[in-house]
Specification:
The chain has about 200 residues and is mainly alpha-helical. It contains nine helices and three strands. The protein is globular, with a radius of gyration of 16 Å. The chain starts with 20 loop residues before the first helix and ends with a helix. The protein binds manganese (III) ion (MN3).
Length: about 200
């Protein structure tokens, strides 16, 4: 079965005023939909969607795609589909505040403190050159913060993505224009720490 656009778990206006409704609507219905459509077109007839019903598994196994053109499409559009599907779920109208639960303890162990983690994440997101993402990831039980170019997925490098921030201009330009740091600061107010804790629990 072809991949499909997931519904958002909230209204387009739910993350206001931190992320505006127009940005959310365009981001979901245009940008994310296009990743899904182009991924489906690229893998049509390959059976990859049958072998990997979860796009996360598809991008984690991208090395199995031997045709270079198809591989490039899976990298860009499969990565885009996976990244955005995670992104929507780690935000919430009831988000923000301090992390809690197991992920909070792991962050304190891994980075020294919540503050040091957020500083590292902010620096990675702010300084990422061009389009891409900042991620809190897990590998072998160890947390790290990494930047990914374009729509590259942490799964492609063996990481499990726990929390991600889209720093493509399409994610913030309508409201924040060139002020990416303001967008990053506002975004912490919508981080869904319950969902982040759930993802942390799923990480290997
Ligand atoms: Mn995006």
């Amino acid at each position: 079965m072809p991949y499909s656009l997931p519904d958002l778990p909230y209204d387009y206006s739910a993350l206001e005023p931190h992320i505006d409704a127009k940005t959310m609507e365009i981001h979901h219905t245009k940008h994310h939909q296009t990743y899904v459509d182009k991924l489906n077109a690229a893998i049509e007839g390959t059976g990859l969607d049958e072998k990997y019903p979860s796009v996360d598994d598809l991008v984690a196994n991208i090395s199995e795609v031997s045709d270079e053109t198809t591989k490039k499409m899976v990298r860009n559009h499969g990565g885009g589909h996976s990244n955005h599907s995670i992104f929507w779920t780690v935000m919430s109208a009831d988000g923000g505040g301090e992390p809690s639960g197991d992920v909070a303890s792991a962050i304190e162990t891994g980075f020294g403190s919540i503050k040091e983690f957020q500083e590292k994440f902010n620096t990675t997101a702010t300084n990422h050159f061009g389009s891409g993402w900042a991620w809190l990831v897990s590998k072998g039980g160890k947390l790290d913060v990494i930047g990914c170019a374009n729509q590259d997925s942490p799964f492609m490098d063996g990481y499990f993505p726990i929390l991600g921030l889209d720093v493509w201009e399409h994610a913030y330009y309508l409201k924040y224009q060139n002020k990416r740091p303001d967008y990053i600061e506002a975004w912490w107010n919508v981080v869904n720490w319950d969902a982040v804790n759930q993802r942390f629990g799923q990480a290997g």
